[in-house]
Design brief:
This protein is α+β, with helices and mostly antiparallel strands. It contains six helices and nine strands; from the N terminus they run E-H-H-E-H-E-E-H-H-E-H-E-E-E-E. It is globular. The two termini are 30 Å apart.
């Protein structure tokens, strides 16, 4: 687990490379989709935190007209805009819909929203160690789930930003926002999009250094914290700013946060057959 990659982010605590053991577990092949999340909402009446707050964060490249003009930029990362009315139902704000993105990962969901979905579906969020083990697909000490080269033989393997970040997302196969959850080739364990597309919440509290001396058997992270772990990078990642689409890369956000590039994947203990 981990990486000593010279292109990594030391402040995130990617290293050191260490041997970790996890007991057998189950994990979904894809991130939870809009269609799946809609079933949960229909069953439970759940209201996401973005809906309660009345806004969420959207990349300004995906906004036009009055939405772009009237949505304040985030200090320090001005390509993010706080858009009133943006939520999982309306991914880029009022007038947009998830109707044509049924099989895309649900976004604008907080860690708390993901926990509510897990409670309904009889699942749980993976620990960070479980996530990384599954994301690697059986390949140890590799940058990506398919090897060390980002685009082997010129082939796109994941959904990340192409072109000049954050001005222009353009390339032969560039996508605007998320891709369907089953896009690209799965890894060696049959998991799709474990890097790129959307960040995925993990169960653990985030710490940049706890794991340096923490447990090596089924680690679950520190007991307390202010932010939860996110893994995998997203369609917003670019090597000029955030090359966290490497399988060992980590990031974090507060449990009530939501953006247009954060989703989640569910897991379960081996032998647990109670999932929806």
């Amino acid at each position: 687990m981990g990486s000593d990659d010279p292109d990594g982010f030391l402040a995130d605590g990617e290293g050191p490379v260490r041997e970790v053991t996890v007991k057998a577990f189950r994990i979904a092949p894809t991130a939870v989709t809009n269609a799946q999340f809609a079933s949960f909402v229909k069953d439970t009446g759940h209201i996401t935190e973005a809906e309660e707050f009345g806004f969420s964060y959207v990349v300004d490249a995906f906004l036009t007209g009055h939405l772009k003009a009237n949505s304040p930029a985030v200090p320090g990362t001005p390509w993010w805009r706080a858009v009133s009315g943006a939520n999982w139902r309306s991914p880029t704000g009022p007038g947009s819909s998830f109707a044509d993105r049924q099989h895309h990962p649900v976004v604008h969901v907080s860690w708390n929203d993901a926990q509510a979905y897990c409670a309904w579906s009889g699942t749980r969020l993976p620990t960070e160690a479980e996530w990384e083990h599954a994301a690697r697909g059986g390949l140890e000490r590799r940058r990506y789930p398919w090897g060390d080269e980002l685009t082997p033989s010129g082939q796109d393997m994941c959904n990340i930003w192409q072109g000049e970040f954050p001005v222009r997302n353009a390339g032969p196969h560039a996508r605007t926002g998320t891709a369907p959850a089953k896009s690209y080739r799965p890894n060696g364990y049959g998991l799709y999009n474990t890097v790129g597309n959307v960040w995925e919440w993990c169960a653990d509290w985030f710490s940049p250094d706890f794991h340096r001396t923490g447990p090596r058997q089924d680690p679950t992270g520190p007991h307390t914290g202010t932010a939860r772990v996110m893994r995998g990078g997203s369609h917003m990642c670019h090597d000029s700013y955030c090359n966290r689409y490497r399988v060992a890369a980590r990031s974090s956000n507060t449990p009530d946060s939501s953006t247009g590039n954060i989703g989640f994947r569910v897991a379960a203990d081996e032998g647990d057959s109670s999932q929806r």
